Amino acid sequence: MLPANTPRSFYRDAGRIAAFRGAAGDGTAPAGGGYHPEDWVASTTARFQAAPAGLTVLPDGRPLTDAIAADPVGWLGADHVERHGADPAILVKLLDAGERLPLHVHPDGRFAASHLASPYGKAEAWVIVDAAPDAVVHLGFSRDVGSDELAGWVARQDVGEMLASTNRIPVRRGDAVFCPAGLPHAIGAGILLVEVQEPTDFSVLLEWTGFDLDGAAVGHLGLGFDEALRCVDRAAWSEARIRGLAAARPGSTTRPGVERLLPTAADGFFTAERLRPAPDAVLDPAFSVVVVTAGGGELSTGHEILPVRAGMTLLVPFGAGTCALRGRVEAVRLLR
């Protein structure tokens, strides 16, 4: 069971993480309000150019990176280590949008490899835990945007034109949305979500006016905007194509109590499952994060039985073996 890990950010929270985690009554809730809108869960990824901010420290005082390095097979499993080395290859966050996030883009793996010396870009997905009645996300451009037009918007900070050219997608509790790398996006105010992503902190800002940072200086990953904007998908995304990002695969209930949440396009990056025990949800061995979103019950492993309740974030190592979640409980499980 992990405590909160809330590095300072440049946009505001609304206290939703504190309220959500405080409901667990386990002493792990952060202070609410201000500029701590993200809880980095089981993180081996540091904030961009701000290490060690973002890295998880286990309850016993060990950095998670050190624990995994000392026993990668026990934490991750032999097959995972063979494919990815001693790297969980995902990052999970709780995110509380106290205000609309700025429009921004994450590079894909090819761009990250050639420009940022990283094997990972930043595809991501969102599972909505709570949302205001009018909550929306902005996802992709609704028409083709020329490179000069985009560069002009960014240079002038023409936020109205940029946002007017995006797709506005209403979201509600329980929705899951995949956001491919390269796609311009912004999470609207009034949303609490669980985010799973590739393990980087790479963002190219298209917008920064009114936020607590100097976007002109730091919004291009040190590449300059002429180069950084090359990672942006400027093509039009139709309504049908956008709907495909939010559609789980047909027959998404893979076994009793376990529902796959994301479209097949996410398969190469991560998996998100909703757990609703019926009567048990059986979890195969894997390094995974479980966020308990409602109710209460217990998670049993080959070694222990752990009482769980809404607001808890749990790190399950591969070595825990096959686990079972039972009770009147709902949770989200994230894994590679």
TrEMBL record:
Keywords: Isomerase, Metal-binding, Zinc. Transmembrane segments: none annotated. InterPro entries: Carb_Metab_Reg_Kinase/Isom (IPR051804), RmlC-like_jellyroll (IPR014710), RmlC_Cupin_sf (IPR011051). Coiled coil: none annotated. CDD domains: cupin_PMI_type_I_N_bac (cd07010). SUPFAM superfamilies: RmlC-like cupins. The keyword Secreted does not apply. GO terms for molecular function: isomerase activity; metal ion binding. Gene3D superfamilies: Jelly Rolls. It comes from the Bacteria. PANTHER family: FRUCTOKINASE, TRANSCRIPTIONAL REPRESSOR MPRA. This is Mannose-6-phosphate isomerase. It comes from Virgisporangium ochraceum. The lineage of its organism: Bacteria, Bacillati, Actinomycetota, Actinomycetes, Micromonosporales.
